[in-house]
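To illustrate the input format used throughout this study, we show a single complete record. The first block contains the structure-token representation of the backbone; no residue identities are included at this stage. The design step must infer an amino acid for every position from geometry alone.
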């Protein structure tokens, strides 16, 4: 019974990391990327998301609860994990390690990000371009958020590779190699989108570099 429960939990953890958490990450990065078009474009995109029907139900049941489960069980996996170089090989073993490291860091980073934005909004703050620009007026926050974006995009992309293996989508060495290239491309594309958005908040001219 314990083995079946752990199998189910790991499967659910893997699935939630892609749907809905991974989908939300992409959506969030795309909305932030509107900052490259100026403050007005970002504010319009942000307010559109804030005015979605059933917003609070969506946030609680589609974002926060799945994310909380994924984070808590992910921490359990991270601190219980034992690296196996014979099974994963050198490259995959490093991906395995970094996946755990980024997962632990993301728990801290996401908590801080939610506190600075979503919790602040609950107390009356307006989540807009000026709020983000004010956050990024601190160079340490720029570095912190850049590291957070890179961690999030890596964790998602590498988690997508693991998801494809664990759910039987990529079962052959060839398919797993192709999946490695695809997920690396996803990582670079999403990271580019995320970093450009940060640069736009710091200095709109830098976003065009």
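Output of the design step:
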């Amino acid at each position: 019974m314990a083995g079946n429960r752990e199998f189910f939990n790991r499967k659910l953890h893997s699935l939630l990391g892609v749907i809905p958490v991974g989908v939300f990450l992409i959506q969030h990065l795309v909305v932030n990327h509107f900052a490259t078009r100026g403050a007005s474009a970002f504010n319009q995109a942000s307010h559109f998301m804030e005015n979605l029907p059933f917003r609070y139900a969506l946030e609680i049941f589609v974002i926060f609860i799945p994310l909380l489960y994924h984070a808590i069980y992910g921490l359990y996996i991270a601190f219980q994990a034992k690296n196996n170089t014979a099974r994963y090989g050198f490259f995959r073993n490093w991906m395995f390690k970094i996946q755990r490291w980024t997962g632990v860091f993301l728990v801290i980073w996401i908590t801080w990000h939610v506190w600075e934005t979503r919790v602040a909004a609950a107390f009356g703050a307006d989540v807009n371009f000026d709020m983000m620009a004010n956050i990024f007026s601190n160079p340490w926050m720029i570095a912190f958020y850049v590291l957070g974006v890179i961690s999030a995009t890596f964790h998602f992309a590498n988690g997508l590779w693991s998801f494809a293996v664990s759910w039987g989508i990529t079962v052959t060495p060839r398919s797993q190699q192709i999946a490695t290239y695809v997920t690396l491309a996803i990582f670079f594309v999403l990271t580019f989108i995320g970093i450009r958005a940060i640069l736009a908040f710091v200095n709109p001219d830098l976003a065009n570099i």
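Structural context for interpreting the output: The two ends are 55 Å apart (CA to CA). The mean pLDDT is 91.
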